[in-house]
Amino acid sequence: MVSKSPSTMVKAGYKKIQDTCKMAQTRGQQWAWIDTCCIDKSSSAELTESINSMYRWYKNAHECYAYLVDFTPGAWPELELGICRWFKRGFTLQELIAPKTVILFDRDWNVVGEKGDNRILEFINRITRVSKDILLHRRSLSDFAIAERMLWASSRETTRPEDKAYCLLGIFEVNMPLIYGEGDNAFRRLQEEIIKRSNDLSIFLWGEPLNFQPKNSKKSLTEHPSCNLFATSPADFGAT
User: Considering the entire predicted model, what is its pTM?
Assistant: First the structure.
């Protein structure tokens, strides 16, 4: 239940939380999980556990709501989806990929569409460069090269530099401790953890345009030239 204390109701985001709960109830859901109020960020242990578990939680969710506050009611998706900030934030990448059902709402909580709708799917693929196969859960994350998954995150933005790495833990199926204050070293640690669990050499293919081939293709991603060892951020994989 959403608190109705005066000190809570005046906080930014209160109405969005309230409307999310109303929408969940309308759609027959008994529970709604919202990261901004369901994670005690003052507890480093809880924050670490939550961020390391978040992809799994989204994957197991019955449905996920993407509230596009900057989508004008009645607008055509091809006109406004591309400018919606939701598609540019770091942590929302896993919210897009992990759940089987993602419902997009405009700022008045009208349904824009679901990510599985053919028309919406085309726009999302064009905006994010995320494969339709993973959006529709026709393939698993491990079917995609490390560099391709990095490409999906290359244009994403985070408020804190560490979150460029932390928001990708589920995308790369790794776990690691959170150390806020380490800055860009977090992304280096992420790459080190990925290397421990995978022999996919495409992780070193940053800074060059990539033409992704299916994993069973005769042409290997390892044929692309690489430079240096570790990238400094996902943006390094976004060369075109």
Answer: 0.86
